[in-house]
Amino acid sequence: MHALATKRYHKAAPFLLVMLLLALITGIGAIATSQTAEATTASSSDLEAGQKLFSSNCATCHGIDAQGQDGVAPSLVGVGAAAVDFQVGTGRMPMQASGPQAPAKPVAFSATEISQLAAYVASLGSGPSIPTAEEVDPSLGDPAKGMELFRTNCAMCHGSVGGGGALTEGKFAPSLMKTTPTHIFEAMLTGPQSMPVFNNANITPEDKRDIIAYLVAQRDGSPGGLSLGAIGPVAEGWWAWIVGIGLLIGSTIWIGARSS
């Protein structure tokens, strides 16, 4: 048996095997370290630029350390990059004046600056990240399933097709007809203004994409003809009823006048 083992295994085999494993581990570690160093350099540059942008544009309200100020602006620690990308990317921030809520307006920063601001705020505390292109691609979603989810969770404020609606105390649910898929996803994820937070435990990323697919599908004209502003079946039905009854009454009066 000993002779057979000697023939099958060379004495130097274990040593060579250990050396080979050490070389492999060292090589992988060197590559990972190099990649980490490059990422850290890029990230540090973005963080520095983002901090400067924050100090000159946001610190007045949110505080130099982003901890917020009572009665002025909330803390941004832990809100994540998605919240910044939504608020700044839709022009809601920086806010021009106090009000019940911040309306969307022309964007004040470039895409690069928004990314840098988001990176800086995200470094202050963990929070939702910006969704990937695949997560918000409406072509990968199911509009029929999205319709069910939207009408269960969103239609009571935004209307049956996302046309928007009024809330209380001067607040409102904005129209979603021109909102980008990324910003729709981020709004569900972060719950801006009066909107509740629909995290991935409440509505999965796949369900969010289905909702986006449904909303985008509503932008392709009106399958039923005249949309009447796409304000919803109840309001549109009431308008049709008023017009129909009005025409009947008008016709009756006209016929009666002609007969007499």
From TrEMBL:
Gene Ontology cellular-component terms for this entry are: plasma membrane
Give the residues the record marks as binding heme c 2: 154, 157-158
Q: Which residues bind heme c 1?
A: 58, 61-62
Leader sequence residues: none
Q: Which reaction does it catalyse?
A: a quinol + 2 Fe(III)-[cytochrome c](out) = a quinone + 2 Fe(II)-[cytochrome c](out) + 2 H(+)(out)
Q: What does the entry's PTM section describe?
A: Binds 2 heme c groups covalently per subunit.
Q: Which UniProt keywords apply?
A: Cell membrane, Electron transport, Heme, Iron, Membrane, Metal-binding, Repeat, Respiratory chain, Translocase, Transmembrane, Transmembrane helix, Transport
Molecular functions (GO terms): heme binding; iron ion binding; quinol-cytochrome-c reductase activity
Task: Tell me the membrane topology, using the record's own terms.
Answer: Multi-pass membrane protein
Pfam families in the record: Cytochrome_CBB3 (PF13442)
Q: Which InterPro entries match?
A: bc1_cytC-su, Cyt_c-like_dom, Cyt_c-like_dom_sf, Cytochrome_c_Oxidase_Subunit
Q: What is its main location?
A: membrane
Residue intervals passing through the bilayer: 238-257
Q: Keyword Metal-binding: yes or no?
A: yes
State the EC number(s): 7.1.1.8
Q: Where is the Cytochrome c domain?
A: 45-219
Tell me the compartments it is located in: Cell membrane
Its assembly, as annotated, is:
The cytochrome bc1 complex is composed of a cytochrome b (QcrB), the Rieske iron-sulfur protein (QcrA) and a diheme cytochrome c (QcrC) subunit.
Output this protein's name.
Answer: Cytochrome bc1 complex cytochrome c subunit
